[in-house]
Structure formats: structure tokens, C-alpha cells
């Protein structure tokens, strides 16, 4: 079941969101959280996200605007480190509450609560017609890098903000896609460095013991296939019905996570 959920999610979301610039990390991280501790789920999803972006860079990275990448990605990389450090700090805090539900032990922790709020917040963006076309002036690109990078490091939810700040940069469709991809790679490398030096090195045994390495590899391969098919077959990916479905699922999963049920 874990392989089916993660591979299906990676395949579909990677293909459907190739041109929108966000979606894979937003949805894949909660799916990993169904099987692993939240901080491990963030790191596992980040590995798939990075691998997929490296693959997409081979397909479309040559079109990137290097100047825009520099203005956005370098602030984003610094902020991603800060977000990753905060994630590690939250992971070490004592639980807020413990209770039993239908004979099952449930735990509410600070990290679950914070990630749950972020999941639900980004779900609201998916469900809000007025926010889906949000675009900010190009002069705010470095600020967008800071915000996108911070939330990317903390929870993996970076793409929606990245798209909002880069969509008004005056780039062609191909340059926009390439710029988004290279910027995402810089952030992924930055946050993965901190993850590896902090909690991920500590919790790697959990991922290995529960078959997580195989899931990460399988999810990456499924995402590769999704990105390849998306680059060949899809011309329109911001389909409203899919956004609504994703938004509702994120709200439900965020509520379950925050309540300690996941």
C-alpha cells in the first residue's frame, strides 16, 4: 500500500505540475507522513523532490534565466537553512498531549501541529480562486526567495510562493519553467545539507528499517516518469478540479496530523 500511494502520487503530481512549478513536495510530504515521523517525511519527500528537479533540469534547465535564479535562489538557500534548523528544533520538543482513540495511542506534538497548520494554509491557497492567480511585482523576487526558501526548509511547501513571485519576472514560458527548476534545486541542496547534519542522520535508521529507502527510490523513479510524460503530453496543468481535490485532501490530512491521529 505504501508503494502504491507514494508512487502514484509522485507520478501524477510530477506530471500535472511540471508547468505550474509547484505541487510535488506539497502533496508528497503528507503521504510520506502517513508512514514515517513528520521530520523524516519532510526529508524523504525532499530527496524525491531534489531527484525529480535534477531530472527536469536535464529536460528544461537550459532555458533558465541565470540572473533571476541568482536573485531568487541565493536568499532562498539561506532561508531554507533557517527553516530546516527550526524543523530540527521542533522535532526535539516534548509532546503537547497524548490520548487514546478507539484503543489507538495518539500524540500531538509541536512539529505535527506546525506542519499541519502549514498544510492547511497551503490547502486554502489551492481552494481559493482569487489566490491561485496571485502574482507579485518582480522587484520582490529576493523577498520571495526568502519566504519560499524558509517554508521549503521547514515543511517542503515552497513551490506556490516561488511561482507567485517568479510569474511576473517577465520570462517566457520556457524560461519560467527552467528558472523555477534551477531555483528549486538550490533550495533542495541547501535544506538537504541541514537535514543531513541534524535530524536525518539521527533518524535514518527509522527510514531504513521501515523500507523507506526503497520508497524514496521508487517515488523518485515514478516522479521521473511523470515529469517526462508531462514534458511530452501536457499543455494545461492548472486544472481546477484537481486543485480542489488536492486542497480538500490536504485539509483533511492536515487536520488529522494536527490532532495527533497521524
Nutshell version of this structure?
The protein is mainly alpha-helical and 262 residues long.
Strand content: under 5%
Count of the domains: 1
Order of strands, main sheet, comes to: 1-2
Report the span from N to C terminus. 16 Å
DSSP helix fraction: over 70%
Please write the string of helix (H) and strand (E) elements.
Answer: HHHHEEHHHHHHH
Q: Would you write up a description of this structure?
A:
The protein has about 260 residues and is mainly alpha-helical. It has one domain. The chain has 11 helices and 2 strands. It has a two-stranded antiparallel ribbon. A hairpin with a 2-residue loop joins strand 1 and strand 2. Helix 3 runs antiparallel to helix 8 and helix 3 crosses helix 9.
List keywords for this structure.
two-stranded antiparallel ribbon; mainly alpha; 262 residues; 2 strands; globular; single chain
Topology overview:
Layout: H1 2-16, H2 24-33, H3 38-60, H4 66-91, E1 97-101, E2 104-108, H5 110-127, H6 141-155, H7 159-166, H8 173-197, H9 199-209, H10 212-233, H11 240-258
Antiparallel strand pairs: 1-2
Helix pairs in contact: 1-2, 1-10, 2-3, 3-8, 3-9, 3-10, 4-6, 4-8, 5-11, 6-7, 7-8
Amino acid at each position: 500500500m505504501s508503494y502504491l500511494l507514494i508512487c502514484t502520487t509522485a507520478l501524477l503530481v510530477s506530471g500535472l505540475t511540471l508547468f505550474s512549478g509547484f505541487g510535488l513536495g506539497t502533496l508528497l510530504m503528507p503521504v510520506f507522513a502517513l508512514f514515517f515521523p513528520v521530520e523524516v517525511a519532510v526529508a524523504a519527500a525532499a530527496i524525491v523532490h531534489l531527484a525529480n528537479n535534477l531530472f527536469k533540469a536535464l529536460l528544461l534547465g537550459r532555458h533558465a534565466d541565470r540572473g533571476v535564479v541568482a536573485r531568487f535562489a541565493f536568499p532562498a538557500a539561506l532561508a531554507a537553512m533557517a527553516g530546516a534548523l527550526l524543523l530540527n528544533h521542533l522535532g526535539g520538543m516534548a509532546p503537547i498531549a497524548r490520548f487514546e482513540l478507539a484503543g489507538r495511542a495518539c500524540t500531538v506534538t509541536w512539529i505535527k501541529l506546525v506542519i499541519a497548520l502549514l498544510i492547511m494554509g497551503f490547502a486554502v491557497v489551492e481552494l481559493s480562486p482569487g489566490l491561485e492567480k496571485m502574482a507579485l511585482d518582480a522587484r520582490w523576487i529576493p523577498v520571495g526567495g526568502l519566504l519560499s526558501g524558509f517554508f521549503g526548509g521547514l515543511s517542503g511547501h515552497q513551490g506556490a510562493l516561488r511561482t507567485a513571485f517568479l510569474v511576473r519576472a517577465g520570462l517566457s514560458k520556457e524560461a519560467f519553467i527552467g528558472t523555477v527548476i534551477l531555483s528549486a534545486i538550490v533550495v533542495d541542496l541547501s535544506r538537504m545539507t541541514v537535514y543531513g547534519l541534524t535530524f536525518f542522520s539521527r533518524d535514518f535508521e527509522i527510514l531504513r528499517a521501515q523500507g523507506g529507502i526503497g520508497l524514496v527510490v521508487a517515488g523518485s523513479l515514478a516522479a521521473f516518469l511523470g515529469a517526462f510524460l508531462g514534458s511530452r503530453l501536457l499543455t494545461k496543468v492548472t486544472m481546477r478540479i484537481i486543485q480542489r481535490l488536492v486542497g480538500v485532501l490536504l485539509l483533511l490530512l492536515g487536520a488529522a496530523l494536527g490532532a495527533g491521529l497521524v
